[in-house]
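Input.
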Amino acid sequence: EEIGSIGGLGEGERIFSVRFVDTIGYVVTFRQTDPLYTIDLTDPTAPVAKGELKINGYSAYLHPLSETRLLGVGQDADDEGRIEGAQLSLFDVSDLTSPTRLDTLTVSDANSSVEWDHRAFLFWAADDLAIVPLNRYVWDERNGSEDYFAGALAVRITDTGINEITRITHATDERKWEAQIQRSLVVGDELYTMSQLGIMASDLGTLEKVEFLGW
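Output.
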């Protein structure tokens, strides 16, 4: 049963992500730019749009890091709305009437499965560590070469920025196409990542490989 509604958000655009945190709602729409809307849900029968931030690209997944910080995973785009690569965005939502973007990290010509599968994302708050699956493919017709990566991006997220630590991959020259990392989790002092090739344990502190079990 519908008890409340709100209209006028991103008219003519498509909703790419929604996230509810207690009495706050976040909505991202996209066509050419990425409006991030903040919604006050204190009275669920009368939700109120509080703020709006227009930026290029979009966030297909939103993850609350704290009461004042929000992480978006999606795609960067140019002024015409053409997507350009995977992008992580750090938002300051301490003032719902004026959300701001503090930092971005973009990998050109790449995408992440987090855009359509939130279970592929890991945030380990104790170390401010995020693991984001990443796939990138570029073909250079001039010299017939390819640039391919399948694995995961490991980033440290501070209160003001996103910093890449390393890229994790299970790929071998023979089976690089099956190395897309699908899940990650922390057990004790180790980070485990899983792909179609197997499961790898990495030291949580250094993210160096400890052991790999193939299948």
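The CA atoms of residues 127 and 140 lie 38 Å apart.
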